[in-house]
Amino acid sequence: MSAATTPTPTPAGVSPLGKVVLALLAVVLAGALAFFLLWVTGVGPLAVDWIIETGDANIEILRFIAAATGVLLFTVPAAFVIIYMELKLIAQMNLRVGPDRTGPWGSLASLMAGLKVLSKEDFTPRGVDVPVYTLAPAVVFLASVMTLLVIPFAPGMAGYYMELGLLYFFAASGIGVVGLMMAGWSSFNKYSLLGGIRAAAAVISYELPLILGTFGVVLLAGTLNLGQIVENQAGWMWNWYAFQQPLALIIFFIAATAEAGRTPFDYTEADSELVAGFATEYSGMRFGFFFFAEYVNVFILSALTVTLFLGGYHTGVDIDPILGFLGVTTPVELGNIDPGSLGPWLLAIPFLVPPILVLAVSGLIWMVKSEWGIIKSLVVGFVLTNLLVGAAVSFWAIFSFEALLGLLVFFGKSFGLVALFVLMRATYPRVRIDQMANFAWKWLMPAALLNIFVTAGAIIIVREYFS
Amino acid sequence: MSLPILDGGKDWPQVLLARATEGKLPDIEAAEAKGAWEAFRKATGELSPEVVLHTIAESGLRGRGGAGYPTGAKWRDCVTQPDPVHYVVANGFEADPGAQVDRTLMELDPQAVVEGTAIAAWVVGAEQAIIAVSSSAPVAAERLRVAVEEAEARGYVGGDADWRSLRIEVREVTGSFVVGEETVLLRALEGQRAQPDQRPPHPSRSGLWGKPTVVNNVKTLAAVPWIVAHGAGAYTSLGSAETPGTTLVQLGGVVRKPGVVEVPLGTTVRQILDGPGGSVQGSLKAVLVGGPTGGFLPPDGLDTPLTYEDLGQAGAVAGSGTLLALDESACLVEVATLMTRYLNDNACGKTIPCRIGTRRLAELGAGFCSGHVRPRDAELLSELAADVHDAALCGLEKDAANPLLSVMRYFAPEFEAHSVRGECPAGVCQPLSLAGAASS
Amino acid sequence: MTTPREQVRSLDDPEVMVQTPGTIYDTIPPLTPRTEREAEFYDVGDGEMLVNLGPQHPSTHGVLRVVLKIDGEKIVDLDPVMGYLHRGVEKICEHGDWHHAISNTDPLEYAASMFSESLPVLSAERLLELEVPRRAEYIRVLAWELNRISSHALFIGWLALDLGGITPILYGFGERDEIVEMLASLTGQKLLFNYMRIGGVNGDLNHDFLSRLGDWMSRAGARINDQATLMNENEIFVNRTKGLGVVSREMALQYGMSGPPLRATGVPYDVRRAHPYSVYPELEFDIPVRSDGDSYARYLLHVDEIKQSLRIIDQVLHQMPDGPVMAKLPRLLRVPPGRAFAALESPRGQYAVYAVSDGSDQPFRFRIHDPSFFNLQAVVPLTRGHLLADIMAIMASLDPIMGGIDK
Amino acid sequence: MRTDRIPGLAIVKGMLFAVRQVFRPNLTVRYPEELNEISPRHRGRLILLYDEAGTLKCETCFQCAQACPIECIDMGGVDTRNRYHVHWGASEQYAERREESALRRSGRPVPDRTFDPFEPVDLGPLDEILAAGKYKPANALAMLESAQGVYGHLPVAALQHMAHQTGADYAALYGMATSYPHLHFEPPVGHIVRVCRCTQCTLLGGGRVLAAFREHLGTDVGGVSPDGAVRLDVTACGGTSSGSAYVEVDGEPLPKSSPEDAATIAAALRANVPQGEAA
To answer: How many angstroms separate the CA atoms of C355 and C339, rounded?
Structure first.
């Protein structure tokens, strides 16, 4: 350690970043080598042909698998977004700040909650009926995830266009309740037993109005294929079934809250009575599944409401007449607008649209973050709009304008309804189980039946006398 | 400064002071002539550690440090510990300022102590042994070091063969009265703060540096060679049935011939006083047995035999082995109070009952002496004494209240004299100004 | 006659042994029942189940265990078990002097500790016939009323939380925090104030407290009105509480209930008017009374009482005289021998103490009468036959504080 | 469902109200950034209190300070034997407690000698002792003894330096030193009076002699007279005292001792007259 010899900077091993780069380099070299070998020995082209050939043969299965994985992968981030939205919204309503430590404005709070739940030990208490106990969360989660397959997110972008889409939807979501009862029964705890049985009672009394509620729409649409139902609601806002079936919408929405176990009816895990209802004995990722399943349920039911009643991915504004007014004569297929035909308005777009967008976004930010001051929210707004527009344009380039617009509109409506669910959670106390049951049988069921008769009658009259 | 050696009664055996040669510095040749290290050679040569341990246990030898714990059991407990490293500590730290019993033994027959330590270390399998001596006895420490060097020269210890590689070290320790306590001494040897530790675990399980350690009084270790040489049966025949063997007692006070004498356990206090002590000058008022933590025995209590159990019942304790005869000129209440105050000053302060309790006991005693007595004081004193005894973490605290308690038990009229009539039978007490006590 | 100790059978007694785990319906059979009511309660019919509600449960306002015998959702019978928070405060008070009693009785009604700590103060003053300076009396009334508002704000929040609404509790705490911050600047503490002293109060009003009180008065009770708008007409809340746990006049008087549960049945009994103490006779305020005695009436009553308390605070601030805040007291306070019964109107009812002094500086006996002890007993007849979710609503509306009940 | 009014109206009103709340400023105080200002009368702060009789409620026995897991107990004061004890533990528990002595801030006049500026001491020899002891707190006793050998006593500067170097806590070293009677804090004195406190000497009036010495030297056993001239200490006669209690003055034993002699000797020693004339 004498100071005489000048200490040469011995490389204390490769820095972490160096290690990553080295690994990548290795992979790339291996790939190149493999490719070169395949190509030289002639095996490569044969393999490629074989892949293409078998692919064509059963494109359907491949498509289904792609759709299913896409749906599965989509649910988890959606659940994170909804959890964060609920945390933040309820906090603001309670004059609280809500999560604001993890990530900007606490946006990573739900992600952290997910990781925390992942890292907790899922402990199996003694005296538990082990097979049923471990399977319950899987059943509940899968049930709610499978239903997403049939919902049309955007034109041409639904998991699988099933003829009996709606029937499949209710069948899948029905299994969820079985999962709840499995959990309630197997965890050898009186409170969770009560929670499980309450879930059963809720299903019996609310599944019927939920399904009967949709009969009106089915009668009007004439098909169970959700994609077709949404197509029927194209054009102006009043084509939406909500305006033709207002009563059905209300019935469906109330039954949906009960189905999802949301606040006026969240007796399955009513924390002030049953501690944590059916999920009392669960911990770690198993509890995480229940937790996610509940929020995915909320999203699915609001998505279904949007699909059935609020015109799915349609903007509710018939674009053609406006274009006519703007002097655009040819029936415009949104995808290939001929810029030239816009005439003077073409200039408007680059100058008017960005500032309006920026002002809108920063206005929104300024309202939420009043203490930031105008300049800061403007800056943040500007950055955010650029990101959004960038993402939208790139999405547009990949798919198509309709798909982009459809997706945005669909998500806007769905998350709007989810916000409504969250609002209800903030302001409502819990309904007692017997009040809930007789409300379902005495009010919702007759209303749903009445609605079906009225719609049927109307259809017959219209077909008979007007067409 | 050292007291004369008195010759014991007619048939009293000489175990510890067999080789006590007056005046001349005992060297190893003379000692060996009289049989020193012979037991060590016999043990290490012919016998195995297990046999020696068995003989010690059979002999019923009990610790002379004051607690009277059977030495055989203590060694066996230490031997059975899995930890390979063991220590042996000879406790020559004589805490009682008024006693020089251990010092006399160490000065007159250091070989016995060193040999006993060596045998103990050999049995227990200790690589290192420490003989702790109080820094107020430099002569004893010097002679012990000489004895150790001679033993190393002889090759008994300090060699390099496995069991002969034992290194014996003589360490001078300075500290207050409480350092005489087993665990406190270990802490002092480790250089830590001199405070006792919770027992169990006993030092035989985790002592010096946390290793199993055998801590024995020098008197106990000095008896070990004699037992190994003469066999267990011979030792049990000496002294009383449940506490065989002899111990050293120091006579003082108004006895005609003060000095140190070797006494078989079980002999009564009266025999010791009248025999070697040459009976008492003037009228005997009380006998203090056991130094500052001992108890006062009334004249009619002199027949209690010198054993741990009987002394315990009588309210005294073997302690440092001092017998002080008091005549009418001593005011027992004042002496007891001063002894309690001494114990409080020398307490380590670790437990509240000991640090505060003994102080309040001293104040109560001073209250009696100076006559400021509150109605419930006597009752409060006995109650407080019981509490201090129960909360004891070390020997000092357990016996701290013995003086006052024994005076209240046997000399109640003297207490009444002080509290009710406010005058002192011995005419000694003026308003005693205990510096701290009176003013607070 | 075998004492209860012998009746306890050891765990390895086969009959007591727990059967093989796994069946959800097995319960450890209780000890041999001591009373015939216990015998009748513990023989479980078929289809019935014994469930423990508490002692560690989210909505039992402290540590209370209720053994429920339920048939599905319906509560067949219930047996509340109390004593989990029992520390023997009355006995402890006998060992400390009268000043210690103040800090001992502080945590009894921890949601409104200004009242429970005044017990030893009022009873000692009554025994000493001590004349408390008028300014101290006014400051006491001010502190009482502020504490009453914060306690009512909490009550409304708890009631809503027990019924599932999660927003009103936040508004309640918003209101309570402001008041409690104010009292902290006056007394130094936020929950257990320890502010009352025998012969007056611990400290005079200071600038910090007055400035906070001033700007709070301007928007006093605003957040409680927020709670009211959220809950008063809300159909779900009204359905859950209207006509639930109806307490009749006779039943209330028979159970010795007091405070809002009693006034909800039409009996206008309020200690501030019935046995006036301190300077209440000089203040005008009326006692809100309702007649239908159900949980909803009790809730509305609390909202009205807050308005009355605001009126009182206004008057007190205007009539506040000057002068000392503490009477002269000997260093070693020896209370003359005798007996005194001192009562005051706490947010939950009549808080009273029967104090006996034997002339020494320590109270001889300190019998505390806690209102929630009597109010909570009504839970058993009220919830029998109702559903599991109702027990929360009824218990929350009776507003029990376990600290005061178990003492 | 009671429908004397439009059924859903109140619920909708409640929801609209909740939405309006979103835009009102929220009440949370974000703790680490914004601090709720504590009222001057806040009673949560740990400040040493006197009991009614005005005596310190605490004997600074250090047990709580050593037991405190987060070392937040900051204590200083005088113990019953009038020996000052030192501060212990980090004092940044409350942001505003930057100054050294919580006591001084509490406005109570307590002699706090530790924080008087102690005069620096030549730490050279101490470093050698520390090196010999391999800076290990386990050898603290040996190092303290050799330090006393060098300086004649244990100066505060030396103890502080030793604490910093070995990493042992200052109070632990101080506590160690106080538990051994042969280690002293006061600078070396001119004269030392040693009195034997064995039972034999007590019987011969040792108690009264010691009391007299305490009174005239103005200190207790193990202490130094206020003017720093004489130290009162303990010795052991081993039971050989006869006639009167065994007393040593500067090493030579007195032929006989009595309370009166004690008074004269004490006075003489303090007047710094060589011991010869006083006897």
So the answer is: 6
Which residue type, as a one-letter code, is found at position B87? Y
Q: What is the pLDDT of residues A93-150, one digit of tens each?
A: 888 888 888 877 788 888 888 888 888 888 888 778 889 999 999 999 888 888 888 8
Could A96 and D18 be called an inter-chain contact, meaning their C-beta atoms sit closer than 8 Å?
A: no
Please check whether residues B196 and B306 belong to one and the same domain.
no
User: Given D10, D40, D42, which is nearest C234 (Cβ)?
Assistant: D10
Give the pLDDT confidence of D60-87 residue by residue, as tens digits: 556 676 566 555 666 655 544 555 544 4
Q: Cβ neighbours of residue B222 under 8 Å, at least 6 residues apart?
A: B16, B105, B109, B112, B113, B116
Q: Among residues B236, B255, B282, which one ends one of the domains?
A: B236
The first and second tokens of residue C359, run together, are 């002339």
* Gap between the Cα atoms of C242 and C236, Å rounded: 10
Is the model's pLDDT at D100 over the cut of 50?
no
Asked if residue B173 and residue B40 are part of one domain, the reply reads: yes
- pLDDT tier for residue A401 given thresholds of 50, 70 and 90: low
* Arch. (CATH architecture) of C89-406: Orthogonal Bundle (1.10)
Kindly report, residue by residue over D217-264, the tens digit of the pLDDT. 888 888 888 887 888 888 888 778 777 888 988 888 888 888 888 888
Decide if A443 and D1 are in contact by the 8 Å CB cutoff: yes
Contacts of D41 in chain C (CB under 8 A): 184-188, 203, 206
Q: What is the DSSP code (8-state) at residue B156? A: S
Burial of A8 (0-12, 13-18, 19+ CB in 10 A): exposed
Element containing residue B253 per DSSP (H, E): strand B246-253
Query: Could you say which of D1, D15, D24 has the minimum Cβ distance to residue A427?
Result: D15
**Boundaries of domain holding B294:** 246-327
In the CATH hierarchy, which fold is given to the domain comprising D191-271?
Glutaredoxin (3.40.30)
Domain end call among B327, B360, B378: B327
Q: What percentage of chain A has pLDDT greater than the value 70? A: 86
Is C177's CB within 8 Å of D21's CB? Answer: no
Beta bridge pairs of residue B264: B246
CATH of the domain at B413: 1.20.1440.230
DSSP of B86-114: -EEEEEE----TT--HHHHHHHH-HHHHH
**Interacting residues of D189 by C-beta distance below 8 A, sequence separation 6+:** D224, D225, D228, D229, D230, D231
Interatomic CA distance for residues D2 and A361, integer angstroms: 44
Torsion of CA D127, D130, D132, D137, to 10 degrees: -170
- Provide the strand spans (E) within C263-388: 338-346, 349-357, 363-369
**pTM passes above 0.90:** no
Query: Using one digit for the tens of pLDDT, what is the confidence trace for A49-73?
Result: 888 888 777 777 877 787 778 777 8
Sequence-separated (6 or more) residues with CB below 8 Å from residue A191:
A274, A275, A276, A277, A280, C51
